[in-house]
Amino acid sequence: MRIIRPSIAGLFLLALLLPVSAAPAGADSQTLAPGVVLRNAGSVQQSIDYFRALSSSSDAAVSGELGASLLQAKRFDEAEPQLRQAYEQSVGSERARYAIDLGNLAAARRQPAQALRFYAEARLLAGADDSTLALIARINQARLAQRRLQPDLLAALARDSASVKLPQARARLRLSIGALAATVGSLQLAYDNLNEARLLAAQVGDARLEAEALDALAQLYEAQGRAREALQLSRRGIARTEAVDGQRVDLLLRLEARQGRLLAAQGANEEARAAYLRAIEHVESIRPDIPIEYENGRSSFRDTLEPIYLGLIDLLLKKADTAAGRERDALLRHARDTAELIKQSELQDYLGERCSVDAIRSTAQVGVLPGTAIFYPIVLKDRIELIFESVAGIRRHSTAMEAQALRELVQSYTKKLRKNEPGYREAALRLYDILLRPFETEIAAQGVTTLLVVPDGVLRLLPWTALHDGQQFLVQKYAVVINSGLSMTSKTAAPGQTFSALVAGMAEPGPVLDKLPDSLLNQVLGPSAASAASAASAALSLAQNRGVRQLSTRDSTNLKEQLALPGVKLEVEALAKILPGTSLLDATFTTGRLRQEFEKGDYHIAHLATHGYFGSTADASYIMAYDNLVSMNGLQKLLQLEGIKKTPIDLLTLSACQTAEGDDRSPLGLAGAAIRAKAKSVLGTLWPVSDDVAQQVMQSFYSSLVRDQVSKAEALRRAQVAVISIPERDHPFFWAPFIIVGSWR
Q1: DSSP character for 145?
Q2: Quick check: 10 pLDDT over 60?
Q3: By mean pLDDT, which of 349-363, 418-432, 497-511 is the weakest?
Q4: Which of 216, 371, 488, 616 is deepest in the core (most CB within 10 A)?
Q5: Do 683 and 701 touch, CB atoms closer than 8 A?
Q6: pLDDT over 70 (residue 552)
């Protein structure tokens, strides 16, 4: 028979309910059972590997279980053919099982109508022969129903589940109904079902199921502000989990995390810290099995990982308040190392995959170089913690400030900069006082020339070079480089700098106009479109609709005018005189030609001067070639050709690209581009820049790099200072958006 299980995607909230075979027909249940156990315990990749080893069989059950594991891993395109094969080769209740899996796949893809059709079919196929299976389909239907209908549907499900004779199956159904009832505000119904699930699980001696019920009850009580009962239930859940045979890390993770939260709220900091440490240990042990995104579109990073890490950081820093010497330094480094786990997880979340980030992390080199100081801000709910490290040691400064107040200050400031508005100086000074002033004397005394900043949250929107000490901008004193994390970017200089470059630019777009999605066209061609540069750049926030439409001659002409970048032609021509290599402009700047050039492996620098946009995810991030859009995944494919493997890209410059306004995730796109391209560093911009300034900055930057052999960070600093010296260009709007991400040497 088949039981329901919550996927690991439901770490803090049961999500779609995916059925699992305990004894599938048509296959040896003992053969399949180990893979099912692995999947239920959260070891999804091991489960996939196990079923793949059996996949030479054409048995529907093998395909179905492999498909279910792939679905739990959110590998939808791989899961679908496996599930469809099982569905098409089965009849009756077996077919109903796979119909439910396909319904869950459709729901995960946000196709509710298709999901409901599969669930309805499953109910018909299950009929009276398998009431448990029919109830599973109904629970999933209820999850997709209108909110106002859900309480009555769940109450009916609770009544009908009483007819299920097997206590273990009834307990699993009750657990699922109770968890869903809690999310729709039916608290008494939630409590009744969760408590019965607990009693039934204890009755049959299913320790894991009992622990899951205790965990769900603890979550219910915590949400109601009943901390004492929630803590007691969590502790009982941990005790029962200890009795579970086999893997149980997913359960311990959420139970320990809750215990840490509740203990910290009580002021039991040492116990809370120990609980958080155990929770993070569990996270790291199953990290590859935690999906990037949950079934309902929520981010696993935002919902599950970040609160655990921040909880531990808060307690480590509080303990550092009363420590001294080596103990204090160790606590500060532990807090920063924990923050690094946040950076890694957030970038994985942005990119939608883990392998690229893990590969970078494994080759990274952490440490403070002479002449360099590391600024590592951590934004907590009630304060800003700044961890500062130089060759003289590590220190910390704390500023009491609500996270929301900081967000409003940064967003107001950057909005003024993006729009070239006056009156920005007061905010620039205030932010300097918060972020730089506490260590100003030490920086000067130690002869620091380069500031390495690892910004957190909203601080990623901040052009740090534009902070002002009351006398001058930060960039007039120091070179500034931005890193997505200390542990994810190499800081070594390439032996014997070389400057062979592929310079490609799009001054006038070509066939790419017919490849643009409707959302982009509507924004660019709409009556409210502003200037060509701002309309085009803002419009590239696109990008969920990738459909192509044929433009009229009038629209095509209008769009081409608004997307034109006349300064790019001058930029490409000027750089050709500075950098040895190949130049591509307009019709020669195609995706096919890019592939040919990168295949040669002749270039250490890739300079792309074209419209581009980094949104809140890698899927919403693009650059434009003359003939087509290049997604971040497409860029990765281009820059992973055999030629690039022989000669890795040292610097990727995205000259006319921008990040989304007000979205503190979008600057991760620059770091993501570096990782996907396997480039040591990226030079990009936070907002659209004028053609003439872009041309001036790029000429100055490359001239200093080639002629004076200075670091990338220093070359950019000189270029920005040169713009500041021009009276009509001294506003940060013109020079501040340029940032170096990654290796600065």
Answers
A1: S
A2: no
A3: 349-363
A4: 216
A5: yes
A6: no
CB 360 within 8 A of CB 488: yes
Q: Does residue 736 sit in helix, strand or coil?
A: coil
CATH entry 1.25.40.10 includes domain 1-144: yes
Would you give the DSSP letter of residue 654?
E
Q: Does this model's pTM top 0.90?
A: no
| 653 touches 669 (CB < 8 A) | no
Amino acid 327 reads E
Question: What phi and psi, each to the nearest 5 degrees, are found at residue 504?
Answer: -130, 135
Spatial contact of 716 and 681, defined as CB atoms under 8 Å apart: no
Element (H, E) at 93: helix 92-108
Report the alpha-carbon distance of residue 448 to residue 468 in Å, rounded: 18
Residue 19 β-bridge partners: 4
User: Residue 379: which H helix or E strand, with range?
Assistant: strand 372-379
Strand (E) or helix (H) holding 396: strand 393-400
CA 275 to chain centre: 25
- CA neighbours closer than 13 Å in the CB half-sphere of residue 636: 18
35: number of CA atoms within 13 Å, CB side? Answer: 30
* Cβ proximity of 678 and 649 under 8 Å: yes
For residue 731, the 8-state DSSP code is S
Q: What is the C-alpha separation between 194 and 216, in angstroms, rounded?
A: 7
**For the chain, first and last CA: distance in Å?**
62
Decide: 98 and 63 in contact? Cβ < 8 Å: no
Residue of 159, 259, 165, 177 whose CA lies nearest to 213? 177
DSSP 304: I
Lowest-confidence region among 477-486, 501-510, 537-546, 593-602: 537-546
Residue holding tokens 């055999």?
642
Q: What is the pLDDT of residues 354-378, one digit of tens each?
A: 666 665 554 444 568 899 999 999 9
Lowest-pLDDT range, 8-12, 348-352, 492-496, 516-520? 8-12
Q: Which two tokens stand for residue 229?
A: 């009962």
Instruction: Please give the CATH topology (third level) of the domain spanning 151-246.
Output: 1.25.40
